[in-house]
Amino acid sequence: MARNVNFDLNHPLMEAGLESPADEEGVHDSFSQLIAEQSQNGGPADAYELQRLQRDLDEDRDEVPYLSSPPRVIRGRRQGQRDMEWEDDVTQIDPLVGERWSSATMKILSSMPSRTIGRSRGAILSQYYNRTMKLRRRRQSRPAIQDFSRSARPSIRGHGMEGDSTDAEGTELNKRERLVNNLQNLSVGDRVRMLRGMPLSVAEKGELRRLTIQKEKHTVSGKRLHCCSRVKYYIIIALRHSWYSWLSFLHSLQLWQVLLKRVGGRFGSGVLSYFVFLRTLLFFNLFLFLVTGAFMVLPQAVHPPDVSAARRSFSGLELLTGAGYFSDSVMYYGYYSNYTLQRSCRDDGELSNVSVSNSTELECSSKSLSYKMPLAYFFTIGVAFFITCIILVYSMSKSFGQSFRIDKSHSILAMKVFCSWDFKVIKKTSVKLMCENICTQLKELLAEINHKHLKSTACQKLGRLMVHGLAWTICIASTTACVISIYYFSDYMHKDPLLNDVSLLALPVVVSLINLLLPGLFNLAAWMEEYNSPTVRTYIAISRNLILKVSVLGVLCYHWLGRVAVQQDSNGLECWESFVGQELYRFLLMDFIFTLMDTLFGEFLWRLFCEKVLKRRRKPVFDIPRNVLELIYGQTLAWLGVLFAPLLPAVQLLKLFLLFYVKMSSVLMNCQAPRRPYRVSQMTTIFITLLCFPSFLGASVCVTYSMWSIKPSSSCGPFRGLETMFQAGKRWVKDLEDQDPNLSMLAKAHAYLVENPFFLFVGAGIFLVVIYFHSQVVDGQRKIIKLLQEQIQNEGEDKKFLIARLQSIHERKRTPARRLVSQDSAC
After folding, report:
1. 213-250 residue pLDDT tens
2. 370, β-bridge pairs
3. What is the pLDDT of residues 534-560, one digit of tens each?
4. What is the DSSP-derived secondary structure letter of residue 295?
5. Which of 360, 582, 627, 743 qualifies as a cystine partner to 322, CB 3.0-4.6 A?
6. How buried is 265 (Cβ within 10 angstroms: 0-12 exposed, 13-18 middle, 19+ buried)?
7. Which sign does the torsion angle of CA 638, 639, 645, 648 carry?
8. Neighbours of 606 (CB within 10 A)
9. Are strands 354-356 and 340-342 parallel, antiparallel or unpaired?
10. Which residues cross the membrane (predicted)?
11. The whole model's pTM is what?
């Protein structure tokens, strides 16, 4: 018969350890009550048995193995010399391992709940049998530990004690059969959750699942289903399979899903974040194109205005300059009319286009459908920017919640090792991609774990600060020089009245050349700094490229809105809005051409030079910061130009689509994975943040300033004859109030909500407050998780402390007894 363990619960060292910190779903949370109950039931006889067993085992104390670290339990006293040598090596790591534990301490350790789980399968099966019964009966109350049967409680049997093995095996089989019966009666979801929560090995869980499914099939096959029930059963199965197939089909429709998995498996999360960000920008431009095309381009294309001058012929150069033939098309602002597009007032059903000026009143007895192009132009741009702002804020908030969380590499590494494989994947190509992806993620996690922060002396720190200061000085000085050169060159191009189509490309070429060459200087400065962390080096490169792009765009916006728009009469421009739209088109096109040149000369030819001339297999590494800032730069140009060129999002859409395949092919052929793998868990969040605040916010400010403060051209566009573009909304509200005095509230609402900039600032403040509160909530969750992790570590230290004190008390009690035994043997 198995013997019960009894130890003194009134000892002062045991008072702090009565409450177990572990919570095993109602079984181990009351471990102290179970110990007290066992102590009361055992009484002095159990203590006498423990003392007798202790004297028997003390004779073989030299053979007691060391205490291994959890979850390893004592291996036994019959290990060979190789295991003992291995234990000697372990003792150098953990001070607790260096102790030789007595038999009583080992028996107490073996009776702990954490050591019992996984060894006493009978208790586990009984426990989950009770759980399945409770789940079937839909009871919400939590039973006390006294309500469990003794077999369902945690075992506190001593380690190494023998019992009736035959009865135990028979009882375990009986418990297993009852558990299988209960699992069979559960739903599929409850059954999966119950099996997943059992503290058993994967093989034992699979065996239970197999027995349950086998018995369920046997039960279904043994029953004779009615014809209607059988048809219903087959219909349900067919519908379920159809639903799963439909979900799989929808998942396969995701754009570039296979290519993204491939590049993520080979090059890591950093390069993958670039292509994911590119796909995000593609969707933003698709939204802009659909909105402007449906409410601005399509109505104007259906009702084209009367063009007095002869239409220019197409020569092919317009594809580079954007001028000439494209000037008299829906591509630019100047083509759109300031008329009200409407159907004929005749009742015969015939359709004809009537162009009515904003100042002309229609006198028609029959009602007709009208479309005010100035109003549609104004509100389409405003609503498109407002919805884009909401999407950006939501994406940034969601990305903050996903990225800035507590994710220690050790815990994520365990999750990746044991939980990352998807057993539903059966295709060879998918399996290969998944293997590469998991392997790359494990490399990144291991690199982050093995990363060591080297301690440097004061002289070394001072030297590094001087190197960093020199590098930043070089980067800022070069950026300032380039920005000043762009400022004076744009002023020169603006003052030159003899501008032909070819000379219009000079400023875009100079700016694109600076954007291409200056990041190389930044990389040279980063090589001089010698950052130990690749992540820090990436973020520093992003910040330097961001300073360059923001400075260049600031100078260009001043050139367009402060020179061209204000001094339009001195340059002989009939429509400055169309000229700005053409400039933005040229900048966008030159940026794409220089990106292709960089891909060709910087990646492809460099790879050939290394392989053929240098005879090396070394390939260039994909420059994430420069390529990402190029995307943000191009998207900022597209947002700036949507007011002056409504079809510019379509050009950006085509550019991004081609750029994805060009960059993807170049990365797979010409680039190699980083030599030092690193994980960039917050890279996507930083990209979205940069897209929102410097890029979208700056473009919104420029567009708002153009609509509220700058006078439109008097000879072109939908806002000709007005002081500002914003007055189109005022005139529309005034016309509505004149036609129907009951709509005076609409005029007041427009005056307070739209005309007053206070509500614009309030809306922007609300968005900022939402972002702030969400970041604070995420930060609070991180702090709580960090405190819980520290508490778990402290619990482990408390256990080590209590075990060491138990061992010391046992040593003090054992020493007098051994002295008496030695004296008796001497006598």
Report:
1. 887 766 655 555 677 877 888 888 888 888 877 877 77
2. 342
3. 888 888 999 999 999 999 999 999 999
4. I
5. 582
6. buried
7. positive
8. 16
9. antiparallel
10. 272-298, 375-395, 470-490, 502-525, 546-565, 585-606, 627-647, 653-671, 683-708, 758-778
11. 0.70
